[in-house]
Amino acid sequence: MTARTTISRRTILTVLAGTGAAALVGCDPAGSRNSPPAVAIPDALLVELDAGLGVLRGADRRTIPRSAATADGLSAYASAPEGADTAFWRIDTATGRSTAAVTLSGRWVPQVVSANGTAVALTSNEVDVTTGRPGGRDVTRVLIADVSGVRHRLELRGNFVPEAFTDDLAGLFVLEWLPAGSPDRYRVRVVDLATGVPGPLHTRAKEPIPPGAEEEMRGDGRQAVLAPDRTTLYTLYTHQPDHQHTRQLVSGRPGNVHAFVHTLNLAALWAYCIDLPHPFGAASAGGHAMAITPDGGRLFVADVTSGAVAEAAAEDLTVRRTATLPRGAGTAHAAAGRDRLFVGAGTTVRTVDLARLSHASDWPVREPVTGLVLSPDGNRLYVGQTGAVSWHDSATGRELGRAAVPGLVGLHGVVGRA
């Protein structure tokens, strides 16, 4: 999850860096003479605002520009220009307290935080796996840092985008865009941080992928979801005409898929793709969304344009069931509980009974959905909308409360829950 760097005057609280120290600045404090008191939100939420990452805790609102958060949202790593260099520090999202800032030579933006929350990959410009292709370049510089300073400086020959750290922090998964100067496709590789050399991943049989068998993808990376145990990263890709997976390239069997879930094992360094059947990938990438159950056992993908929904098992990475729901329109968002799947698009939140994988009910909301997050106890569903977040009884859809959140772009999750 990356943060936008445009700072909006609508930001309520902003974390800035000055002369190496972090400060909280109230641009529009709650309870000011011209503003109504902020509504307390039951759970602390990590959100995306037009000014950067945001933390909504009770009635408190905080924005952290130029930052990336840990998987559980309990910490965020932030940066700010300091002359020609960069100040870099970690913030406790519960208290607002920060570590002493360290100075990084040059200009850097945090992009990826390790699953254990201790290491950060920074790049000189803002990039992300799921926000489109980067501009052409022949060399990519990546900085690996923690709160004590720089751990590794990488100068990668080619066009790379950081994706995730390996479980042991010895490597960095990256997307390599090809050709580097004018990219139109990409492949996943892992960079050995000790040597700075990128190489292929492994197959599920723990064998190195042979030369010529690395998958090259041309589609859209729609959404990435980290498993609750933080060992597996799932990324949904759509629009893959004439694409062949590594297993097909190795066997010589042809393949032609339009959507799949790229599964990346952060510990064993293997990748595997769960093919999604037609009509997944036939319509707009934005109409697709993905969610994982709290126990990490089941992964769900929905395409609101066609109404298709698929259930995949994390155990064997196969699609177990599919169903067709009423069609919808708009950008899709999803959240999964133990027994229900929630899919939001436009001004409708659709619920799916997971026992039968069938349509259960529809809830109308006031404005187009920009994100869905389920509370840890499963009793409340948070719905991001234009400039506000509402929360609903997850069984009935009844709105329980609503809070204004100026500049809200999307919802990431509940703070303290990976």
Write a short abstract of this structure.
This protein has 418 residues and is mostly beta strands.
Structure in words:
This protein is mainly beta. It contains one helix and 34 strands. It has one helix at 246-251, and strands at 13-18, 21-26, 41-49, 52-58, 60-64, 67-69, 75-82, 85-92, 102-104, 109-113, 120-123, 139-146, 149-157, 159-165, 171-178, 185-192, 197-199, 220-226, 232-238, 259-265, 271-275, 288-292, 298-303, 308-313, 318-324, 333-336, 340-345, 348-353, 358-364, 371-374, 380-385, 388-393, 399-404, 408-414. β1 (13-18) and β2 (21-26) form a beta hairpin. Mean pLDDT is 86; it is low at 1-34 and 245-254.
Chart the SSEs and their pairings.
Blueprint: E1 13-18, E2 21-26, E3 41-49, E4 52-58, E5 60-64, E6 67-69, E7 75-82, E8 85-92, E9 102-104, E10 109-113, E11 120-123, E12 139-146, E13 149-157, E14 159-165, E15 171-178, E16 185-192, E17 197-199, E18 220-226, E19 232-238, H1 246-251, E20 259-265, E21 271-275, E22 288-292, E23 298-303, E24 308-313, E25 318-324, E26 333-336, E27 340-345, E28 348-353, E29 358-364, E30 371-374, E31 380-385, E32 388-393, E33 399-404, E34 408-414
Antiparallel strand pairs: 1-2, 3-4, 3-34, 4-5, 6-7, 7-8, 8-9, 10-11, 11-12, 12-13, 14-15, 15-16, 16-17, 18-19, 19-20, 20-21, 22-23, 23-24, 24-25, 26-27, 27-28, 28-29, 30-31, 31-32, 32-33
